Amino acid sequence: MGDKIILDGHKMAWHGERVEAWLRGERVAPIEIECSLTRKCNYNCVYCYGKLQENEEKKLDEEVIFNFLDDAAEIGVKSIALIGDGENTCSPHLYKAIARGKNNGIDMALATNGSLLKRDKLEEILPSLTYLRFSISAGEPARYKEIMGSKDGDFQKVCETISEAVRIKKERGLETTIGLQMVLMPRFADQVMPLAKLGKELGADYLVIKHCSDDELGSLGVDYTEYQRKHLTDILHEAEKESNENYLVRAKWTKLLSGGSRCYTKCYGPVFSLQISGSGLVAPCGFFFNEQYKKYHIGNIAETRFKEIWQSEKYWDVMKELSSETFDANTMCGKLCFQHKVNEYLDGIKKGTIKFGPPSGNKPLHVNFI
Question: Whole-angstrom distance between the N-terminal and C-terminal Cα of the chain?
């Protein structure tokens, strides 16, 4: 599994035609969109960045969602990950949305805490998903409840749902990747090993351990230097030893050890990797969903068709602003964003420190989820 899946990097090199078009100054469609169908969530995770990004919520009904998925396919979006500032299983339209996107030729993925995921729907949705990822930041019931703000019994319920998904995948020979993701705050270090062992026991394909993103004000209180302490890095290395030919444990080392800093100031990533709030708000990324960043708000899919938003001058003016000399990604937005690795790559191409060319090595899994 380790040589097939990229958990700490990007896949931009496999999309050379779109990068070339962008370098020529053409207006290109995003390769991927990460979005929610709702801002509602049944959990109250202590590390939740979504709570910092309140904005006016519009109703995303079936018609709005289907129009969005149709427009995305028409303009050339290759993948949609149902991830973001809400728990998508709280939307009554989730299962139909997965089918609609897949039928439109878009690679679909879902991230969920899993507690409301209907097990009788797994047979239906798994063949349509490139990956199903469970957000699970503890490996023991009591700590799970404390960290994720869940109810008694949710931990066991989620574990049973993961096991059922694995069973269906194996019995039907599906290519769908079933993964786990831990958002690691340094004070959760005691849960790294229990979760690494649990993932193997449940039969997951991988566990990825990532940093906690904070805003530019440090509202969540993340001290990025803590990730670099030997005690924590030793635990992460030990967890990675749980990997075998069928199960991969991987820490996102490049971000965990970065100290929260960036090597670039301009933000090019949203052109290729866009985020949309569960409120329907289209903005370059999740860091800008809050009303205080209204200058970066482009439109709302509940009010305007996505294709029209993408074609608008407002959309491209915002993208131009982020890549201008007046924008500084180190001081004007949150730490180590969703587009961070893509930004590093594109910034290197622009500066000439990275040579643009065809990819080396075998084509990875989930290639359209860049």
Answer: 18
Is pLDDT at 138 greater than 90 in this prediction?
yes
Average pLDDT over residues 5-10: 91
Helix axes 94-103, 62-75, angle to 10 degrees: 20
**Burial level of 68, CB count in 10 A (0-12/13-18/19+)?**
buried
Q: Do 12 and 78 form a contact (C-beta atoms < 8 A)?
A: no
Pair of tokens at residue 254: 């490049």
Strand order in the sheet with 107-112: 248-251, 206-210, 177-183, 129-135, 107-112, 79-82, 32-35, 273-276, 281-283, 299-300
> pLDDT at position 220, please?
82
Mean pLDDT for all residues in the chain: 94
pLDDT at 49 over 80: no
Residue 123 makes CB contacts below 8 A (sequence gap 6+) with 168
What's the CA gap between 190 and 193, in Å, rounded?
Answer: 7
pLDDT tens digit string along 212-221?
877 777 788 8
* Alpha carbons 179 and 162: distance in angstroms, whole number: 9
Quick one: angle between helices 154-172 and 192-202, nearest 10? 40
Q: Do 264 and 329 contact (CB within 8 A), yes or no?
A: yes
Whole-angstrom Cα distance, residue 22 to residue 345?
14
Residue whose C-alpha is closest to residue 210's, from 168, 253, 177, 179: 253
Q: Are the beta carbons of 108 and 100 closer than 8 angstroms?
A: no
Number of other CB atoms surrounding residue 135 within 10 Å: 18
What is this structure's pTM?
Answer: 0.94
Q: What is the pLDDT of residues 273-298, one digit of tens each?
A: 999 999 999 999 988 998 889 999 99
d(CA 365, CA 111) in angstroms, rounded, equals 17
Other residues' Cβ atoms within 10 Å of the Cβ of residue 81? 25
What's the rounded Cα separation, in Å, for the pair 301 and 310?
Answer: 11
* Nearest residue to 319 via CA among 304, 309, 306: 309
